[in-house]
User: What shape does this take?
Amino acid sequence: MNYLSDKAKGMKPYVAGIQPEGGGWIKLNTNENPYPPSPKVAAALREAEASELRLYPNADSASLCEAIAGNLGIGAENVFAGNGSDEVLALAYQAFFSGKQNVLTPDISYGFYPVWNQMYEVSATYVPLRDDYSIRAADYKGSNGVIIANPNAPTGIALGLPEIEEITAANPSGVVMVDEAYIDFADVRSAVALIGKYENLLVVRTFSKSHSLAGLRVGFAVGGRRLIEALRMMKDSFNSYPLGRLPQMLAKAAIEDAGYWEDTRLRIIRTREETAARLRGMGYNVLGSGANFLFMECGDAKGIYENLLAGRILVRYWEKHRIDRFLRVTVGLDSEMEEFIRCIGKLTKPR
Assistant: This one.
């Protein structure tokens, strides 16, 4: 007997990047930070009181939200924290887009968006990227909601703040959700600067990338009070305690070490630009990136991916229309990128 619901039978789940067992891999496929978390995170972990784990955590992650708010120069009432930005995004889908028609999102973007559109019965319109793989702000207007990643994934291309404002102003009847997982590596301003001006704007961020805490699973949203209250309502209808005591404490320690965050962020940007320049010098088309990864066009991307995999170098490949000639390559340590460049040069010709 098949016990699955009709919805479960029809779901096409998101496929995450490979997480290999054992050592010896150069892992450039899941956009993790190559540097360890702040030393203040390690110190906080050593000082944690294990006996307190018998108690439930603060349901709204109040202390963490206050720290995030202080870092961003906003009120704590404008911050919502959750179990990774994926959970925050999923709660936002339920709160603002579920069952709606004419919700706009790019045709090439984060692979979880189509899954949530299916899960929460969102009638999404997939807006084609331009030929250069950028988002055209004028294509997003008059909708019941907009969902975009900025910088976009997997392309890495970022929209400037004026373009985000153009999209937000052009869609007053729906929430404009901007997924800023990679914004700390871009040379554009965060849309957080606009939340006081637009009550329909929700910005989602994560500690996974620039704070080196992918294994901790902490994300957050920033928006007007009404949007944040709606997220809390959805949370309390699903899981009242999404973040444990340790994630709340360690994420707070990370955000309070601005110097370490800035140092590692700038290192990644430098390595990204140096790697992109070398690949372009070899004849490859590499899109301009505002993220901690590069999107490079290859003649036989699938073959290159498989050869790199055989050599224990992991990158990301999608056999999808318009991007099946591209590889997405996370920015790793300088030594890892050096080995990647060496192997890519042996394996391929650009086109």
